[in-house]
Design brief:
Strand order of the largest sheet: 2-1-4-5
Distance between the termini: 39 Å
Structural class: alpha+beta
Number of helices: 21
Largest sheet: 4 strands, mixed
Helix content: 40-55%
Radius of gyration: 27 Å
Shape: globular
Length: 604
């Protein structure tokens, strides 16, 4: 009892900068794994007791507040109470308030706004209050590992360790060979999925969950649109942290009801899962978009009829506009890519399947670039580079796993035309030769390209606009069947996979020198133990182990990357504090002869 009281006193007086993040992340990671393991064993009592434990965990609360108020992109968007927590004092107050009142909290209505869709219509978005978002993340950490142990292996949207590229690879594997049978595709789109999910079937699926009541209250909380209150009888609010998880729970089971089964096979590479011969086809779902590959047109029509009946039981229906039955020779679009079978002389049968960026995705990118250049009229060259580089880098990284080199070259030509027009408008009385020499040159180190748009700053630093064609084409490795990061038996698998993904992600965004610093820490923040990109590259700080004011040098052994919040903790406690150096995994010794600190050893 004395120990518990002492812990409570420490927590009450603990400031935001003193929170031991690595410890809290480790506690939640272990609890999630225990819930996953108990669910796989079908030990319902154990699952419930562990979920109750994680719901009242202080570590879960602290991590949820950090994610909502510091990491998430919507941290500056308030709900109907207009309350935000953007500084450390407000975050500390929020933690103290939730520690006392989270069990008595009643969810507030969301603030409804609308955002435009690509078809010209509007998508409703519900923004919960900052307290509701924090509590939703608390409950998500309790509910998600239980369902990660149950989810179908064919669902890839809004799940930890899975992405759109996994869905793309799952579709590509059965249609990439020469002798393929799955030539008919059912493209399905669920009409207003988030807004029309029936509450009763969803709540029935989570009836064993100890926090079922507050989840039901979030679903029934209603929303304010133009200061008018509206009730919600169906649907989950888009914009809530827990909404994608609830949507996945509601849609789970479609594959089973369609009669699609898997069997394990072995080859030289090890075990792998594939659909049995008795199955009607191959099913892939990403959020509310789904694709089913079948052998014949008759089977495809039969699948569509059965799919309509299954979705009706969830209170949903297929969109007639977007649901189609197509042949692979005609091609189909999914998640911004076009899958199609082409004729070729490279193969014996004269056929090959390619995945390319879809025409719609390319046009959307061009429209985005056009809008950016409209806002760049009269702006300086530095602003042009700062605005265009993130857009181009993001689009190239999304499409680098498919056949996109020709598309990258064409879009580089398109952007070059826009840059020429911008330069001529900026200097209407100058000749083309003068404009070319001012704005273009051989500015990218290691590339023999004299048409690089950029400049050399006063500090002799070269700033330039990257080209899409510089992006290296790499094939994505599909995540195995039902593998989940919460599975304690797959620690090594996920450590290797996360390291590879982080390496690919940062290698495209960091220079070789900066990437070398990231490699030295295995692409992780040494203080909190999380991946460097988990909080975005804008929140990374290059930290000098021995500060420059004490003689620290800009050399690799003296540099590591930390998250901005973690770096703030290090500077407050003292860079050469023995406890800090131990957490960072380094040793620093003072050399009296040379009168300076020397980094003695980096512990990997």
């Amino acid at each position: 009892m004395k120990l518990k009281k002492e812990i409570e006193i420490v927590r009450k007086n603990q400031k935001w900068d003193e929170i031991p993040w690595r410890k809290h992340y480790r506690i939640i990671r272990n609890l999630r794994r225990r819930i996953f393991k108990a669910t796989r064993r079908r030990d319902i009592k154990r699952v419930r007791s562990l979920q109750k434990l994680i719901l009242r965990s202080y570590s879960n609360l602290v991590i949820s507040v950090r994610k909502v108020t510091q990491i998430n992109q919507g941290k500056k968007t308030a709900g109907i109470d207009k309350h935000l927590a953007l500084n450390k004092e407000e975050r500390t107050k929020l933690i103290k308030y939730l520690s006392k009142h989270r069990n008595m909290w009643k969810p507030l209505p969301t603030k409804r706004i609308t955002i435009p869709k690509k078809n010209g219509k509007e998508r409703p978005l519900g923004i919960p209050t900052i307290i509701d978002r924090c509590l939703q993340n608390v409950h998500k950490n309790a509910l998600e590992p239980q369902w990660e142990a149950k989810f179908e292996g064919s669902s890839y949207g809004f799940r930890p360790g899975r992405s759109a590229h996994d869905a793309m690879s799952k579709i590509f594997n059965p249609i990439k060979g020469e002798r393929i049978k799955k030539l008919w595709i059912v493209e399905g789109d669920i009409k207003g999925c988030f807004d029309n999910i029936a509450h009763e079937p969803l709540l029935k699926k989570i009836e064993e969950y100890p926090g079922k009541e507050i989840v039901a209250n979030w679903l029934k909380a209603g929303y304010f649109l133009k200061e008018v209150f509206h009730k919600t009888e169906k649907g989950t609010p888009q914009g809530g942290i827990i909404s994608p998880l609830l949507a996945n729970i509601a849609l789970d089971g479609i594959e089973h009801k369609l009669g699609i089964k898997y069997k394990c096979r072995k080859d030289k590479r090890g075990n792998f899962w594939q659909t049995s011969h008795a199955s009607i086809g191959i099913y892939v779902r990403y959020a509310d978009d789904l694709v089913i590959l079948t052998d014949s047109e008759e089977k495809a029509k039969n699948v569509r009829r059965r799919l309509k009946k299954i979705l009706k039981s969830f209170g949903l229906e297929l969109s007639e506009e977007k649901t189609k039955i197509t042949h692979l020779y005609e091609g189909f679009d999914f998640l911004g890519w076009n899958f199609r079978r082409y004729k070729t002389s490279r193969r014996k049968r004269g056929e090959i399947t390619y995945i390319k960026p879809s025409k719609e995705s390319i046009q959307k990118f061009k429209n985005n670039i056009k809008e950016v250049f409209k806002n760049l009229k009269g702006k300086c060259q530095q602003r042009v580079i700062e605005d265009l580089n993130p857009i181009m880098r993001g689009w190239a990284n999304y499409h680098k796993n498919v056949v996109s080199q020709a598309t990258f070259n064409n879009l580089d030509d398109y952007i070059f035309g826009k840059l020429v027009r911008w330069a001529k408008r900026t200097h209407p009385k100058k000749s083309w030769k003068w404009i070319k020499n001012k704005y273009w040159g051989n500015l990218c180190p290691g590339r023999n390209d004299k048409w690089v748009f950029g400049y050399t700053s006063q500090n002799d630093k070269v700033r330039y606009l990257e080209k899409l064609a510089w992006t290296k084409i790499e094939r994505h490795t599909l995540v195995k069947y039902k593998h989940s990061p919460d599975d304690p038996d797959l620690k090594e698998y996920w450590e290797n996979r996360n390291k590879q993904n982080e390496e690919r992600r940062l290698a495209q965004k960091l220079t070789k020198g900066k990437n070398k610093i990231a490699i030295s820490t295995n692409y992780k923040c040494r203080l909190c133990g999380q991946e460097l990109s988990s909080e975005g590259l804008n929140n990374l700080h290059k930290h000098h182990i021995v500060p420059r004011r004490l003689g620290g040098r800009d050399e690799y052994k003296n540099l590591i990357y930390l998250h901005a919040e973690c770096h703030r903790q290090v500077t407050l406690k003292g860079e050469l504090n023995p406890d800090i150096l131990l957490k960072l995994g380094v040793k620093a010794l003072y050399d009296k002869r040379k009168d300076r600190w020397i980094v003695h050893k980096t512990i990997k």
